Amino acid sequence: MTTTIKPAAATAPAPSIGANLRGYAERVRGGDMGALPAVFGLVVLCTVFSVLRPSFLTPGNFANLFTQGAAVTVIAMGLVFVLLLGEIDLSAGFASGVCAAVLAILLTDQGLPWYAAVAAAILTGVVIGTVLGALVAKLGIPSFVVTLAAFLGFQGLVLLLVKGGTNISIRDETILAIANKYLPPALGWGLLAACVAAYAALQLLRARKRAGRGLSADPISLIAVRVGALAVLGGLAVYVLNLERSRNAAVVSLKGVPIVVPLIVVLLVVLTFVLRRTGFGRHLYAVGGNAEAARRAGINVDRMKIAAFMICSTMAAVGGIIAASRASSVDPNTGGSNVLLYAVGAAVIGGTSLFGGKGRVLDAILGGAVVAVIENGMGLMGYSAGVKFIVTGTVLLLAAGVDALSRKRAAAAGLR
Amino acid sequence: MTPVLELRGIDKSFGPVQVLHDVALSVYPGEVTALVGDNGAGKSTLVKCVGGIHPIDSGEYLFEGKPVQVGSPRDAAALGIEIVYQDLALCDNLDIVQNMFLGREHKRGLVLDEDTMEEMAAKTLESLSVRTVKSIRQLVSSLSGGQRQTVAIAKAVLWNSKVVILDEPTAALGVAQTAQVLELVRRLADQGLAVVLISHNMNDVFAVSDRIAALYLGRMAAQVKTSDVTHAQVVELITSGRSGDLGLTNGVPA
């Protein structure tokens, strides 16, 4: 604690990979586990399932995982914004159902083109979020109660919209493609290459700019490791997804990256940019960390709350569209039953704190992967829905426990 | 020398309770003015009036010799008055740079200009000779009480402020950290800022202040040069409002 701050003019030494690793280990020991439990859980679950059920590891099932988990993951990405403020949105599941119902009615019953229906569904999400946020921020009703009421209300709204229990099928090719069609293999590789190149360029540019201004910059070796990891993991995924999955390739060929994957990647990049690189994102973290400090710094706390709920419900609308695409229809149970709990579970398992101020959009994707693997693997093992619920509930409890314990630990280590 | 901040005849009531009676206060650049007084004497109310949180009922508020209206914290900040409250108002989950620029981030277009902010924060800490933090990118949650106080003070001086008001900055600190913070307070004044230090601790007051303003039951009992009074006289001013020929006679300034 006695080292001096380097004067801005002198070049700060680039911390080595070793120093970076040590810093990370220190943070983990201090209770800041981040995404570690989710990654660890993912590895363990995948290993167990592939040993017990070899069919888990087939390319076909791997592709299934993405389309299965996509809707929940997207809803979880939106929930991160609300959780960052220490609030909760219990209505996100049925909000996605309402938006999906709006989409289906406009597409099938009214015969509108897909873009108009999608725009209307997303607008519905924006309106829902704004109303919820205003109730929480302006009236001061606890978000738990507001969104619990909305949870019940939206459940009824979906029922009314789809006329008491019938289901509305979706026949629009574009909407159906989202969760049921795949990119041509070459395009999959192309997109991956573009992603890796862009990531590498951004990292290098940033490091060079910081080094040029005499600020501590990441060493080239660390950047190489990060870019390499992205390239290897991404390459492996694209390779497996590009394998032929069809039982009879002569009749119908089934290969390529599911279209939801690039969609999720785009959402990840955009939302991460918003959280990490804009004033809005910074203020969101500030309000979650210390609302009073944020207020005194001139941040409009009410507006931040409304915005967070708006983003959450908007992402729920996107999730609803994906769910509708995957099921090719919308029924009263779209966005219902376990969708919300899986989404909250995904965000928390990924390392988003329920106490606010801590979380990343990437967390939701890692957590969503864990939830999807459990759902998928347990299904393959032939367990009943009952067992799946119990296991997922236990995992959620475990994740919330890790969150609470790491907070305690951080407090003891003087980190909080 | 003209005071940078001067209050004359300030009255402030909350409902039927009059908290400040005809209070005068002068704060000079390059000096540390200690604001002392017992609990309930009106120190915090006075500071909140200066900071624009409470509007004053009557009286004159002069800044650099000119009368001004301060109706909100923003007005005070625009004049160059920064207040560091006792609870510091830092976000634990953000790092030092992020906290120092909270609410006033530098941006290029939509994007935060992290590099410029980091440079400015480093320069400010450097100018205050702060050498106790490992990295300005470390989270505030990992800082000690003294370091947090330092960050809060650095945040206040980052904006070319002219008056910095510190509300009991050493109340929760240990001996070594108190010494550090007092050293920092002295350095602020030496750089030409006007510093108002609210404190209960006579040792702190005599260690760094140039002037002492003693409040007694909502009245300014006396404003004196620190070198002109003794420890015991200040304690008397705080507890009874007068000491010898200093202070209030029958509750009215002599």
Regions with little confidence, pLDDT below 50 for 5+ residues of chain B: none
Mean pLDDT across all amino acids of chain A: 87
Shape of chain B: globular
* Gyration radius over CA of chain B: 19 Å
**Assembly type of the shown chains?**
heterodimer
Global structural class of chain A: mainly alpha
Radius of gyration of chain A: 22 Å
Helix content of chain B: 25-40%
Number of strands of chain A: 2
Distance between the termini of chain B: 23 Å
Uncertain regions spanning at least 5 consecutive residues of chain A = 1-13
Please report the two chains with the greatest interface, counting residues with C-beta closer than 8 angstroms to the partner's C-beta: A-B, 37 and 39 residues
Main sheet characteristics of chain B: 6 strands, mixed
Tally the helices of chain A.
16
How does this model look, in words?
The complex is a heterodimer of chains A (416) and B (254). Chain A has 416 residues and is mainly α. In chain A, 71% of the residues lie in helices and 1% in strands. Chain A contains 16 helices and two strands. Chain A has helices at residues 17-29, 36-52, 59-84, 92-109, 114-137, 143-161, 173-180, 185-212, 220-241, 260-277, 279-289, 291-296, 301-327, 339-349, 361-380, 385-412, and strands at 168-169, 329-330. Chain A has a two-stranded antiparallel sheet with strand order 1-2. The longest helix of chain A has 28 residues, at 185-212. The model of chain A is unreliable at 1-13 (pLDDT under 50). In chain B, helix 5 runs parallel beside helix 6 (175-190). Chain B has helices spanning 43-50, 73-79, 96-100, 114-127, 145-157, 175-190, 202-208, 231-240; strands spanning 5-14, 17-27, 32-37, 58-63, 66-67, 81-84, 107-108, 111-112, 163-167, 194-198, 211-216, 219-225, 242-243, 246-249, 252-253. By secondary structure, chain B is an alpha/beta fold. Chain B starts with a strand and ends with a strand. Chain B is globular, with a radius of gyration of 19 Å. Chain B contains eight helices and 15 strands. In chain B, strands 6-9-10-3-11-12 form a six-stranded mixed β-sheet, with helices on both faces. A four-stranded antiparallel β-sheet of chain B has the order 2-1-4-5, with helices on one face. The chains are: A mainly alpha (416), B alpha/beta (254). At the A-B interface, helix 11 and helix 12 of A face strand 8 and helix 4 of B.
